[in-house]
Amino acid sequence: MNRLIKIGVILIFSLISLSSFAQKKINWMTWEQMIEEQKTEKRKVIIDLYTDWCGWCKRMDMTTFANPVIVDYINKHYYAVKFNAERKEDVKYDGRVYKYVRSGRSGYNEFAAALTQNNLSYPTYVFLTENIQLLQVIPGYQNAKNFEYIINFFGEDYYKTTPWAKFEKEFKSKL
What share of the chain is helix, strand, coil (3-state, %, to 5)? Predict the structure, then answer.
């Protein structure tokens, strides 16, 4: 019986240890949650514009957005917003209401169109300042290494003083 208790204790501690190695995740939030968080702590914002049918969006979630270096950096420096570009609920921001627009068999939310200046493609990443001003829109799938460069360029304010080409040459990747 004593041996069974020891084995049980070892199993419990093993499971606890394994759970601590569970994959880290980005702290995704809604647009509305981000607006509330900005009231207490200002941060830059990264918006992942996606659709449910977008294969490259799903791949981005499974690869780049699952990379621990990317996860840690985004969680530390940004509010991360997951925004379905085909969202049917209204978005209220800056005195305006953005609505769902029917187009063909589906549609899009006017807010997604406004963020991308009517260049909707998926996935697209929208970077905003701490004051929710547009920094950059980057369309298309990005592997972890490329995305690490991008999030650091905006997250550390290199975009203010350093040309992209110079930053790209000098940046030391953690991947």
Answer: 45, 25, 30
Residue ranges covered by each domain of the chain: 24-170
Q: pLDDT tens-digit profile of 13-38?
A: 444 444 444 579 999 999 999 999 99
Residues 128, 47: Cα–Cα separation, whole Å: 8
Closest CA to 110 of 80, 131, 88, 128: 88
Instruction: Please list, in sequence order, all residues whose beta carbon lies within 8 angstroms of the beta carbon of residue 130, skipping any fewer than 6 positions away.
Output: 38, 42, 43, 44
Choices 2.10.109.10, 3.40.50.11690, 3.40.50.720, 3.40.30.10: CATH for 24-170: 3.40.30.10
